[in-house]
Design goal:
About 35% of the residues are buried. The protein is globular, with a radius of gyration of 14 Å. A five-stranded parallel beta sheet has the order 2-1-3-4-5, with helices on both faces. The protein contains five helices and five strands; from the N terminus they run βααβαβαββα. By secondary structure, it is an alpha/beta fold.
Length: about 140
């Protein structure tokens, strides 16, 4: 079985590779997206990705996924994790699977990072595995079919 997956990256993730590499690693966002596309292609799946520093653009992408055949969303909402009821509401309107991913272990960081609005909708949450968290999320979706 195959499907269409949307990967959404929130604010500041465009700086991966140069922003706080001790926390986020040295891979760029392009490295992560290219690896995910290859992983999906090998499994016969279609994968698209989008990064935005603007909450509304992420919401618009979620709305589009409701009608374009997307069966699952992998989302790293970054700082919007802790603030965005609007992203939660958009995800609640999406009928497919949702997996929340964080590069760092948010529970080892500042206390305000311990709460996630997105987790209220997510079917799974992966944190602290670096870019491998995205691959784990994708593999879980592939196995689920």
């Amino acid at each position: 079985m195959s499907g269409k997956v949307l990967v959404l990256h929130g604010p500041n993730l465009n700086l991966l590779g140069t922003r706080e590499p001790d926390i986020y690693g040295h891979e760029t966002l392009a490295d992560i997206d290219n690896g995910l596309r290859e992983h999906a292609l090998l499994a016969g799946w279609e994968l698209s990705s989008r990064q935005s520093n603007h909450e509304g653009e992420l919401i618009d992408a979620i709305h589009a996924a409701r009608v374009d055949g997307t069966v699952a969303i992998i989302i790293n909402p970054a700082a919007f994790t802790h603030t965005s009821v609007a992203i939660l509401d958009a995800l609640n309107a999406f009928d497919g699977s949702v997996i929340e991913v964080h590069l760092s272990n948010v529970h080892k960081r500042e206390s305000f990072r311990h709460h996630s609005y997105v987790s209220l909708r997510a079917d799974g949450v992966i944190a602290g595995l670096g870019s491998q968290g995205y691959h784990a999320a994708l593999e879980a979706l592939i196995k689920k079919g």
